[in-house]
Write a structure and sequence with these properties.
Elements: H1 6-26, H2 34-39, E1 43-47, H3 53-69, E2 77-81, H4 89-105, E3 112-117, E4 142-147, H5 148-157, H6 164-182
Parallel strand pairs: 1-2
Antiparallel strand pairs: 2-4, 3-4
Helix pairs in contact: 3-4
Length: 200
C-alpha cells in the first residue's frame, strides 16, 4: 500500500474534498447554498487523523466549539474529514448518534447542526449502487458542521428548499454512474490510513 507522510496526507485529503465540493456539490448544484460560502472562503477544512471513534468524538467537540466561537464572516461552516476511521458506513452511521450527543452536551442544539457524507453512503431501502446515494457520497467520511442561522437565511433566499432533494435525484439519474465517474472524485489518499504513532 502507498504510504504518505502526514503533511502530504492532509493536503491530499483537503484537495480531494475541495474537488468534490467544486465538481459535485457546486458543479451539479446539489446544494445551491454552497457556492457562496466557497467563493467567500468561509469553508473551514479540518482533517482529523483520529483512527478511532472516541478520538474523532473529541475532535468533533473541539471543532463545534470553535465554529460557534468564530466570526461567521470568516468561518461560516466546517468540514471535519476523517480519512483514518469509520471506513465502514454502518459504523459511521452509528457514530452520528454520538455526534448529536456531543452537540447536546455542548449546549449547541439550535445553534449548530451536523450533516454527514461518506464514500459508501446508502439511504435506507436503496441498493448500494443506486445513483441516489451519490448525493451524500464524499471521498472520505465527512461531518459537515453548519450554523442554524446560515441555514435559515439560505432557506429564506431559496423558498423552494424542499424541492432540492427531488431535483438532485433527477440530476443524478440524468448523469448516471458513468457521468459521476467522469467527475474523477476518487480519494487519492490510501485507505484505511494509519497515522504516525502518537497522533490521534
Amino acid at each position: 500500500m502507498t504510504t504518505m507522510d502526514e503533511s502530504t496526507l492532509v493536503a491530499t485529503v483537503v484537495q480531494d474534498t475541495q474537488r468534490w465540493l467544486e465538481r459535485a456539490v457546486i458543479g451539479l448544484n446539489l446544494c445551491p447554498f454552497a457556492k457562496s460560502v466557497h467563493v467567500k472562503g468561509q469553508v473551514h477544512y479540518v482533517v482529523s487523523l483520529a483512527n478511532d471513534a472516541a478520538s474523532l468524538r473529541e475532535e468533533l467537540a473541539q471543532e463545534l466549539a470553535a465554529l460557534h466561537a468564530a466570526d461567521p464572516q470568516v468561518r461560516d461552516t466546517t468540514l471535519l474529514i476523517a480519512p483514518c476511521c469509520l471506513q465502514d458506513f454502518l459504523d459511521f452511521n452509528d457514530f452520528l448518534d454520538e455526534a448529536d450527543a456531543v452537540l447536546s452536551e455542548l449546549g449547541l442544539e439550535g445553534a449548530l447542526q451536523i450533516a454527514s457524507f461518506h464514500p459508501l453512503f446508502q439511504f435506507a431501502g436503496t441498493r448500494v449502487d443506486d445513483i441516489s446515494n451519490y448525493t451524500n457520497r464524499a471521498p472520505y467520511p465527512t461531518l459537515h458542521l453548519l450554523r442554524e442561522a446560515s441555514i435559515d437565511r439560505a432557506v429564506e433566499a431559496f423558498p423552494e428548499a424542499e424541492t432540492i432533494y427531488e431535483k438532485n435525484m433527477q440530476t443524478l439519474e440524468q448523469l448516471g454512474a458513468e457521468g459521476w465517474a467522469a467527475l474523477q472524485l476518487e480519494a487519492r489518499a490510501p485507505a484505511p490510513l494509519t497515522p504516525k504513532k502518537g497522533t490521534s
